[in-house]
Specification:
Helices cover about 40% and strands about 20% of the residues. With about 130 residues, it is of the alpha/beta class. Strands 2-1-3-4-5 form a five-stranded parallel beta sheet, with helices on both faces. The longest helix has 13 residues.
């Protein structure tokens, strides 16, 4: 069963995404910060990191940069309420997901991100 790491500092959004993915058969871990995401991704085999852009402190961009350096084959799907798709893809993310998150859009973006290898970007706008 594929493992997805959901990273968002907002508990309700993190929990909603985790529940949505678990209900669809994914093994889900959660992190509330970029630092926690790096620790988890370094310790566990993670098939996909779903990473929010806007987080206090070590934001999504810094986390993505660290993951791309430390784990170059790690697939990362960036998420935001603001359109950062171009920057996300240029920074090495395999996809981008716009808010608001709707189940069909999230599941389609996850499936595409899991099918696409690193360096094969896709974009799923919700």
């Amino acid at each position: 069963m594929p493992r997805i790491l959901v990273v968002d500092n907002e508990g309700p959004i993190r929990d909603m995404l985790a529940t949505m993915l678990r209900t669809s058969g994914y093994n889900v871990s959660v992190a509330r910060s970029g630092f926690q995401a790096i620790e988890i991704a370094s310790a566990l085999p993670v098939d996909l990191v779903m990473l929010d852009v806007a987080m206090p402190g070590f934001d999504g961009w810094a986390t993505l940069e660290h993951l791309r350096t430390a784990l170059p084959d790690q697939r990362v799907l960036m998420m935001s309420g603001t359109d950062h798709a171009v920057r996300a893809l240029e920074s090495g993310a395999v996809g981008f997901l716009d808010k608001p998150y709707r189940t069909p859009d999230v599941l389609r973006a996850v499936a595409r991100a899991m099918d696409d290898g690193p360096g094969t970007p896709s974009r799923q706008a919700a």
